Amino acid sequence: MSWNTQLFLLLNGPAAPDPTLLPGIRMLAGSPVVIAPALLIWLWVRRADQRHAGLLAVALAALAGQCANLLLGMVWFEPRPFAAGIGHTLLAHAADNGFPSDHSTLMFALGTGLLLTGAARAAGAAVCVLGLGVAWARVYLGVHFPLDVLTGIPVGAAAGWLARQIQPPLRRHMLPPVERLYGRILAALRLPASVFPRGGQ
What we know:
Elements: H1 3-11, H2 22-30, H3 32-46, H4 52-75, H5 102-117, H6 121-140, H7 146-188
Helix pairs in contact: 2-6, 4-5, 4-7, 5-6, 5-7
């Protein structure tokens, strides 16, 4: 038995988990798809304009991380534990490729991106810590092997590094039209730019 399977069996939840904890663990496992866009939008409307280039870079790099996962999935197919008849499945999921974990990648792309671009370092550190919880939850619920979520960490970190590299050219070339579009949206909604207080440095 491989270390990946042994660690999965160690972390996977029991057949009859605590019903008071299970809903919260399921919410944690699925939280990245809500947290990522919500946090980026919140930071955009709250942060000073000079942080917008970093937030834009993080958003694009997070998408790049998901694209990298698609490419990795074409090279390596890893059945999910329940598809291999291993452990307990506590969350309904399609029996598609589990490698790498998109949720783990997304959290660490977001967290490391916010850290490395300086767009929101405290939030980035918090997201990375939460990302560890997401990784554990997805193994506990039986939808990923540990290798799936562990691979998502360096893929996400690489996406965060990419965000830092593309931040300067985005600030020069892409941010101005995005800022103009943002201003037009506020105008169309008849919202003043000051309706959302923005933080400083």
